[in-house]
Design brief:
Elements lengths: L1 H12 L5 E2 L1 H11 L8 E11 L2 E10 L8 E5 L2 E5 L4 H4 L3 E3 L10 E3 L19 H18 L3 E9 L2 E8 L7 H16 L5 E4 L13
């Protein structure tokens, strides 16, 4: 029984997180070949932060022996890939490839995952009925994050298990407000309040400081 558990844990720990195309592997292999200790090196790919709607990354060649116990380490046809545990979720399903334009050179990461425009929401104990929970989340987590962009989200009401929100300030009419609502506010509310099934943008985006939808 112990061997089966250990085997399952090993499979999960070494599962391919970041997909590496053959073209990208060739580029990395060429770079590795120039290092004196190339046979001991693996490609480490880490998420370092966010820039707008995309993550930022650090790619480096590091000794495989120095990988942490909880790193995701796996072999891609001779290339050892190292993904730190704290980057695995953000890189899951992403692809390391060469640019579509050959003259551009280098490598690119095509990642279907996007950072929350609200940043880290942290944990918050919500109390009261559905409306009170939404208002508390807006007041204590979401609006402080939006304030740095000059925006504000206001609670309109609840219909069954759907929540209606309006975007104000710099978010009203802004071209990024849809992404902020979908990837930030909606996600934060659904995760914090499981009984909510949808978050509806009730904003009149034809008004505001920059009426993008007009």
């Amino acid at each position: 029984m112990s061997n089966a558990v250990d085997s399952a844990a090993e499979t999960e720990a070494t599962a391919e997180v970041l997909i590496v195309t053959d073209a990208a592997r060739t580029v990395v292999d060429e770079i590795k070949a120039k290092e004196d200790d190339h046979e001991s090196l693996g490609l480490r790919v880490e998420v370092t932060g966010a820039n707008g709607v995309d993550y930022t990354y650090d790619l480096s060649l590091e000794p495989v022996s120095e990988a942490a116990d909880d790193d995701h380490v796996y072999d891609r046809e001779g290339l050892v890939v190292i993904v730190p545990a704290n980057s695995a979720e953000q890189l899951s399903g992403a692809t390391l490839d060469i640019p579509s334009t050959p003259a551009q050179g280098g490598l690119v990461i095509r990642n279907p995952n996007r950072p929350s425009p609200l940043g880290d929401m942290g944990q918050l104990e919500l109390v009261g009925d559905l409306a009170e929970k939404v208002q508390q989340l807006l007041t204590e987590r979401i609006n402080p994050a939006l304030a740095s962009h000059g925006g504000v989200a206001s609670f309109v009401g609840v219909e069954d298990d759907k929540v209606f929100i309006t975007m104000g300030g710099g978010c009203q009419g802004c071209s990024m407000s849809a992404a902020t609502l979908q990837d930030g506010i909606r996600k934060a509310i659904l995760e914090a309040i499981p009984e909510v099934t949808d978050v509806i943008d009730a904003t009149d985006h034809q008004q505001g400081e920059n009426p993008y939808y007009s």
